[in-house]
Fold each of these.
Amino acid sequence: MKRYITGFYFSLPVQLFLLHFRRYQVLLIFWYVLFATVDGNFLQPYGADTLYLAPEYWGSVNTSSMTLTGFAIGIFVMSWNITTFILHTKHIRFLATTAQPFLKFCINNAVIPLAFLIFYFIKAIKYDAYEELIPAGRIVVLMSSFLAGFIIAIFIAFGYFFGADKNIYRRLRATITKANEQYSTAILQNPLPLYRGEIRVLWFFSASLGLRKPRDVRHYSEEFLNTIFKQHHLAAVLAVLLAFIFLVSVGYLSDSTIFQIPAAASITIFFAILIGVAGAFSLFLKSWSIPVIILLYLIINALNDSGVIDLRNRAYGINYNKNLPAPAYTKEAIEAMASPANMEADKQAFLQTLNAWKARQKEDKPVMFLIDVSGGGNRSAAFTMNVLQRLDSVTHGTLMQHTMLISGASGGMLGATYFRGLYFEKVKGSNINLQNHQYAENISRDLLNPLFSSFITRDIMGPAATFNAYGYEYVKDRAYAFEQKFNHNTKGVLNKRLADYRDAEMQAQIPTIIFNSTISRDGRKMIVSTRPLRFLMQAYFDTTKVSAKEIDGVDFVSFFKDRNPLNLGVLSALRMNATFPYVLPSVWLPSDPVIDVLDAGLRDNFGQETSFRFVSVFKDWLEQNTSKVIVLQIRDRQSGDWDRPFENNSLSGFITKPLMLMQSNWFRIQTYYQLGQLDYLSESMGQHFYRFSFQYIPSKKDASASLSFHLTASEKKDIAASLNSSINTDTFNEIKRLMENK
């Protein structure tokens, strides 16, 4: 038994497995990321696991998407083998004198790749069955497609290296044959030592999976052995170069749907390239690796600071011409913009819209809705659309007619803006049934795959391709991919400029939408709408009693009046509002100094601050001209959220708790703050003011839909079913009662 244990331990597969952990641990990081991603422990809130377990191609999980993903995993595995083959050359010199040394190395280096494949299949089958609700027969087809793609990649790689092996053996055959003839005599005179070098190998697998003992290679010159391995190294470098060219090509051609490969495939091929680069750094630079990496970072940073390269994203539609004077983002300039005269002028202009809204109602004192939607990726977008469709049914098709204002953040705004866009098309004469389930399906479609795919193929690897939008030229990046995909999902309904909605909003044909975002420089709101709304730039209060004022918002149209602000694309306004951290880039705006904006949720994830301020400004008009003002809050999480408190009792938790506490409780803090505002407003307006909240409540306590730009089939069903929860059902009934007793 001891002999078998010793033989197993000193077999090449086991020794290579252990060697990876002793040397070049940085290469294991890539395997950790893959394992953790598939397991749902790495970037799970961003939906990273979905990219691998349910990859999409041409808008669905299909055999092509699985084949491409399997092919990419195969490329990654071969890149791993190539790099470790090069790095561990000195420990496996006995393979140099065998036929097809690289093939034998791959077979003996298969412990981690095989473990990953088994792990992946277990996770993918479970995910497809319970999350994507795919039938068993279909799952078998998908898994077979993945395996086929993986095998194709392996065969292509081995075919390439078999050719390299034949050429090497043909050139060095005479030397190898002569050395082999001398082997038997030499080994008798100088037996193979029990252990030599960093690893001891008693057995290894041959190409036919048979067990073989390693051959003593001391009788080959060092130069000869290095010659054999260098030939393989050259072939390996060419293979990594081909992968790099492939990704660059995909980035250049990805406007065509056929080249919009699954994000998992792009990411994995990128990892394959990084492994090759990391191996090259370790092999050639050795201890100089870190200094060289730091130097490269400093060079790239200097090029970025000098403007030679520009990694910043822009808002499509406004004028970034450097020759135009940039508006000053200073305390004095912002205060001048929010002067009492300017605020009053905008207020009077909006009063005309309020009067136009009232004229369109059938009652002398109608009900007014203000709709506030929360952030939350596709989860919130889908829930918002489902709620609005049900509300349209409850109000007998008059929801949008009674709605004056829509505000909010991120995913909720995607759903609400799409619903209003459909209503606008209906107003213009299109045959649209706002309650059609297809619209909820459209807004729920995947946005994550093109984002991550474009991040790899365009932002990192690809050339700086440009495009024209509304008369100006911009660079294609993942923000461009997001807008293109969202436009495709919503059938072009929102492919408009702010100017295209201006007249309809002013005449109250459709509700006014405010696309807030957060200025990273100081946390103020960037208030984006189709007209100046300077009366929202600060909290409303009685100036005879309170003298101090703090401006916490910037009116976009007024501030960028010389930059063609109404030419801003609605899709860009939405993207500025929904800049999901890291997934989408922040948007920089041409001011002096330059400012950039982030997700509106950082400042107000629920949109209520805007609605409460609006009600305060127009309180007198609302009391005189409406019977009720109803704030409809649509949120993607339960109020209070007692079921998911922030807890971390681990040792590391004591260190990270101060950092994570604010992030985990950010939305709760906003809720508590806004409840104070709500209390003040409710007391001020009395029975005239109502506020109802629709909440996404998952059917299972610990199984809510993911906070990302992707939803599984089961998550879509769960979100739709949430409308029938007791809390939401009671709310729908209460609104119906109020509408019937106007």
Note: The chain has two domains: 2-305, 352-445+493-740.
Amino acid sequence: MRISIWKQVLLAILVALVGNVFGMSKPADSISNDTTIFLNHEIVVTADRQKVSSFGGVQAVSVLSKEKLLDLSPMSMPEALMSMPGVWMQKTNHGGGSPFIRGLTGYQTLLLVDGIRFNNSTFRSGPNQYVNTIDPLMIDRIEVVRGQGSVQYGSDAIGGVVHMLSHMPRFSREHISLNGYLYGKYIGRDMEKTGRLNLDIGMKNTAISVGYTSKNLGDIVGGGSIGKQTPTGYDEYSMDLKLLQRTSGGHLFTAAYQRHVQKDVPLYHKIEDGGYSTYHFDPQQRELAYIKWEFFTKKKWLKEIRVIQSFQNSIEGRIKQKTDESIIENERDEVKTLGTVVEIISRPGKFWRISSGAEYYHDKVNSTAFERTEGLPGINEMRGLYPDNSTSGNFALYTLHLFEKEKFNFSVGGRFNTIRLNIKDELFGQTTIDPKAFVGNAGITYKINSKYHIKGSVNSGFRAPNINDVSSFGVADFRYEVPNYNLNPERSINYEVGLKSKLDGISFNIYFYQNDLRDLITNVRSDHDRQSTIDGIQVYKRINSGKAVLRGIESDIEFLINADIRVQNNLTYTHGQNISKDEPIRRIPPLYGSLGVFWDFSPKLKLVGRWSYAGKQDRLSEGDIDDGRIADGGTPAWNTIDMSLHYTRRHFRVQAGVKNLFDEAYRTHGSGIDGMGRSAWTSVILNL
């Protein structure tokens, strides 16, 4: 099915404008009590580290609520993020993926879970699979800040920030309350079988939540003539616990634990075209435990005080065996992270709000490797991908200020960040690296009237070199990486202007941006022990040689056609150019977007249709051309249509639908696996 993207966009805007002129857009209470506009009506916390209106704030923010997550019933966190405006997903493996925000991914976008940094010092430069270790069924809300985040959250947020906020149990005013649900989902041809149990206990001052998810993903069956892609399936489970305790003084204590484990996860493109008979992540594991104290006072400089103490443990094991060879390689990287965050919210004046604080994160990296010969006893121990027992310390101070003055909202902030890497490498020597950075931002909102706001901002960002950058020694993608300790932080300056509108029955956003990047850490051909290849693979090392510019446009519109039908449409275009190499930035996404229609037949029954589309991407870098995951000449354009019915009663919710209705054969640009073909699915939620 081929439909002009530009015609679709123009049609959506035309329908919205016609509806507004001829009376479709009426006051919300006269349209429907059930069908409402969400865009620009949300309260967000990520952009300024305190609650602000998404309409009044300066930043470009996308929000995915719990209700939208229930409608999507996503297979994984990457599949949930794929539906958000301004987010492009490269698919690493079945269910996995790496979010691109404004053309950047990997360690150039920052992931947060409940306000805690998820990125650690071994995150890789290109697409990675880590966000797939966060269970979407335990998440209440996702916020994506596009184009900034270094001032608010530190290193890595050059492209933006993805913040995933987990489920919050509720207190009960009178009697003890017990709530919960059972969830089950199935996708045809055994591509997904998921079950979850969630229980909430609410008391006057105590609330508890317990959740457990088990998932079996079978091999993906691609569209058209692609057929089954083997091996791609694997098993996983996750659990989450949360305790809220309210004190007599109104203060709040939170304790939480999350654990996610995946077993025997195939990296399909390595097996299909990369010369391996086995290439699996086993295990892929994430743990997060934290305690949070929240204090509330009447003092204007200390309105709210939050202290978060966290511990994270990330384990990535890799099992590799080349085709027609008997040697099996085992690698294991474990990163233990201790984190402390102190936040202070101040209200020194009626129109002045401040968020200030300090952060410290400490990583300890354990990296080991060994190889053995199939059928023979004994092992040969080797250096791991990273130097064993290396550490990283990350300390920062920040302050963010919001001012409101008549027709203007102002935002200004600054952050000082220092990072210290202690590399303990028996093979290449020991060294200490301590990069520092100071970044700032400034933004303004001009309120033309209550319905239209103009936005403008400039912010600087940085990404400090991490342990992966300076010390990686081994195979990555199509190259063999060798260490380089002489690296400096990557820098960026992002400029953007936007227009937001919030009318009765229609809302829209449009942003234009430019992100200037310098001192980019790039891979260049090199040698090791005077050899340009290792095991036949070209040697590369990282250097600060890159200068690039990203420009783009993002649009997002939501409107009511009538009392029962709501339409969402978004479109994103990014043009990325590596100035140093005079070529496109690697894996730059094509023009892409989606059109969703939500039709409420009744308060209980809803029909949802979604058209997702991407243009052809033939702007390829040298690395793209060498990458076997990208077809010769680039990635073809594609369109998919999904349809689903949703029936809700008090005690249960049933959803059923068809993905990729016309069985399109497609692959998202830069991905190592093809998309799912036509497949029926159903999910059931039973409220306890």
Note: The mean pLDDT is 91.
Amino acid sequence: MNRLGGETSPYLLQHVDNPVDWFPWGEEAFAEARRRDVPLLISVGYSACHWCHVMAHESFEDEPTARQMNDLFVNVKVDREERPDVDAVYMGAVQAMTGQGGWPMTVFATPEGHPFYAGTYFPRPHFHRLLQAVSEAWRQDREGMLTQGAKVVEALGGQTGVPSGPLPDAGTLALAVRNLAEGFDDRRGGFGGAPKFPPSMVLEFLLRHGTPEAVSMAEATMEAMARGGLYDQLGGGFARYSVDADWVVPHFEKMLYDNALLLRVYAHWWRATGSVLARRVALETAEWLLREMRTPEGGFASALDADSEGPDGAHGEGLFYVWTPEQLREVLGEDDGAWAASVFEVTGTFEHGTSVLQLLADPDDPERFDRIRTALRAARERRPRPGRDDKIVASWNGLVIAALAEVGALFERPVLVDAAREAAVLLDDLHTVSRGPARLLRTSRDGRAGTNAGMLEDYANTAEGFIALYGVTGESRWFHRAGDLLETILTRFPDGSGGFYDAPDDGEQLFQRPADPTDNATPSGRFAAAGALLSYAALTGSARHREAAEAALGAVSTLAGRYARFAGWGLAVAEAALRGPVEVAIVGPPGDARTRALHRAALLSEAPGLVVALGDGSAGNGSVGDGSGDAGSVDVPLLEGRGMIGGSPAAYVCRRFTCRAPVTTPAELRAELAN
């Protein structure tokens, strides 16, 4: 009996009609394995994963394969996005056993959950033989399998992780830039060879570092990504990664977290340089998020699939996005079709004579280009669309909240700030199950919260989003909600050595408690926590929060010289810590144009990690509002004792709560920030 029908995960629901007797992760599966005295077969993946779909079609939808799985194993299907802790501990086992990892992940484990054999994608003939061989080994060498599982658990449990060093200093950060330069592809941008992933957190660090070498690497990478096939030249938004070193052919799935991180860093590129390309890409990506990823509840869906249906009814990777010269002519006519083929490099860069659209140079006829792009986008909308994983993940929505709030403010697009606020309300109302300290649930779908506990990254990235939203809106509700989340981090996640575990101390006890300090596709929970703690300390003057942030950043000193690519967010936060970060308190009537001008001048500053507090000017210690209409009803410590000057709105530039003389004009504020 397949038991996935009651789940909220779109990935699990993709397998609800499989002939495999799937169990969701949980004690019921472990008990059944013990009762039957058979191993567990744990299959981990996610909804937008192309090779997960391939293995599902080849094996899990195949009746003979399913019978073999059902007869020999208790089969458990796991959505890695709902259970990153389960994914992390078994991925560690896969990498230890095979030297590599990926999804779908296939793990054979004892009824206690101890892995004894593992891999990733297995073609069906190989999978048949493997199922039989593992089952026979279990029957004939039970003690050997149990011993192997115990050894794997012991080895993984004995891993000490990255040792923590001192708080990074200027020399450490310069060393990280040199380490990044060693792996930089100076011809094509990015770091290393194929496949190439968008190095979002590293780009943020390079922009914050600000030296010509650092900014040059960031700009070259961001331009190459934006002009290549990684970026959707018609609809906006970035794919997961490029399969080649030239950013031409993407792995076509679009992930929420990539686009949230890249949206923010492209906006910061524009802020630092005024790049026209950066502005266009940031706004197009924000529009794509609102158009294609927003859910009816106000949150943002997790992913768009890589696969879709082609003209012949068959499903394949990238079919929604690729074009042939003939298809261009059908939509645009001969002349425009030929021009579009030249502009978009439609020369057979993908499979079966199709091409991924690129835009290696801006066209010489912008009006013609806009008309053609609009026509192609409309024609593409008539194609079968990729599937959407519409579950809401707290961590990734936190990243989106931060990005949309900042981009809306920088480009004066209130609709983006409103969208950030709606997503924040969803996380606060639906995902938060208690307050003071807060407890988060990781996921929801269709307005129904899941049951999985929030991980460190959920608390940290949601707090980051709330702090950014407060800095843009002045609604102190978000400042206080961030404080609640950070209190949970400080009480439920510390590892005793200055870092943090990725799972809470009162969560499900797996055979290992995950604690990965390095960045992957998203900031590590440890570095995300450090960033949010540092910003909160800057708004409150709290030594406790700053000390926790600085302790967590100790791992950066260890990683900077050799593995800087895996510590990008930690390096970016260290830049902020080294510079203060700068604190700006702005007080004045919220509807006053002079207040708005000071606020915008602060937000346009490139100071790494700068925080902004907004007060309404009444008694000099209020906030603009708490989200419920009670302007000035709740204090934010950075605002205390700071009022308007001679009846005019004023800005105070501070570091560690030591402030310079207040200023009353944007020009004066820009000068203070430049100093």
Note: The chain has four domains: 10-157, 170-304+389-579, 321-382, 583-674.
Amino acid sequence: MKKYLLLFIFAFAVYFGYGQVYKITYHVTRNNQVLNNSDPVIVFADQNKTIITKQSILDNTFKQTAEESIVDHRSKIIYKKSTFQNKRNIFSADSASYNRYRFIDKDEQKTILAKKVKKSTTSVNSNTIDIYYTNELPLKAAPNEVGLAKGVVLEYVRNVNSGLVATKIEKINDFPAGYSIPKEENVLDILTYRDEVWKSKFIQIPIFNNEKICFDPDNVKSDSILRFAAGTVLLKKVKVPALLEDSQAFIELIEKSNGDAYDRTGSVFLITDDQPLTFLDGMNKGMSTLPKYDVGDGKDYLGMVRTNGYSPIFELMRFFTPFGVSHFNDRLTLKGKTWQDSVTYRQDVSEFLSVMSGKEIYIGTYIGNYDKGGHMVNLELTIHPGNSNYAHKTEALSLFNTTNVMEMGGQTYPTLFGSEKGLEVEFELKEDISKARLRYITTGHGGWWNGDEFVPKLNSIYLDGELKFQFTPWRVDCGSYRLYNPVSGNFDSGLSSSDLSRSNWCPGTITYPNYIDLGNLKAGKHKIRVHIPQGPAEGDSQSFWNVSGALLFEK
């Protein structure tokens, strides 16, 4: 009797599809149109388990980290599986997502692949999600984790105009190999899993890790990290792998005070060897070995402009430290204010990939300060797959950089704009170039209240005698960064020094480049001129301008 009962149960299960494995293919939709050339989502499922993957993963043609889901319906756990380029697999377990979303069923039905489906709606991160699901199959499946508990989701729609729709349902003999429920000892906690997956998707090039940058001439020691100018400049040689043309690069600096209470000029820069003489020669052998720029004011402006045979540094990022973030957080307690622990400066520098790819380069950081404690910094370069909209196929040529990063090593302050000549740079192109533009960073400094730090000044850029661009660099948003400035000076007016508007910078911010269109340029010699009406010195206080310029172009 028992034998016949088991045979009956087996026949019943087969008839109604229990134990049967299904394969469902989903394609991307845009504005109600199916995109048949998209990488299809492939779902395998029976009543106990669902696998969510993609065709490129099954074909082993994926180019980045491949992430899949294995759903155990009995325990209601969604296991995430990621496969890296080196074929290493990692897993995590998530029991919260199975029934995370609350759905509102709608009185709306339609047919998809001969199955009657019902509409249900939820919200995911402020996005309206509509699913169309059926209970005509004895299993639970979906092209993602949304709606898994409802039945078989045959269509997923995000904000009305995009989504996934099932284009084929098949009965198959079994699940593909390699998709067993992972053992507990192989499952990572969710934060560790996410961190490993995120970092696997791009190239990380660490440069400085919690390094001190300070003024301490008696204790300047170099190892893998080179230190110059009494310790106010850090430099490291890094190797950048050969990169795909469609890549993007970001530089990220984290800074906190280690004893210096003041706002300081900072710069992240790159040294290349496209000419026989480089800035590194001046750092190693003395700045006097570099070309002088003479405006007739009796000062030698060393290594600041391009010459035939010498290239100045590329400035990747101009930043400004706030007043004592972290180190001085306990000096002033204010009601309703919590001081930040550090400052993170992050900037897209994709326009410089052509001078980095497949090369050994020097990347450095400068913070002008006179404190033995100084600042602590972390610096990292990351390179990500994907085309950069503004820097695709871009070449770069360094033209000028007046920021005196070797301030304690022989470079004077750039007061050259006080002369009639100002800044003039002649450069020669060996061939015609197109889409030329000047990447221009400018900040005004010094002179106390009447100086150029606090007085707007017009910047004018000329190419071959023709005015190309004029603007007045000025920041009025400095008060937004008050919580990074615990020991900024406070005035009787109720303002803090860090609140005050300045010539294109604020304590605790990046100064972004301007991109000035120069058009198509012919081979031969050209001249860039920068004019700024620099204010006069007042006693021992002087105004000056830190400007940097790189020529960006396509060949």
Note: The longest strand covers residues 433-446.
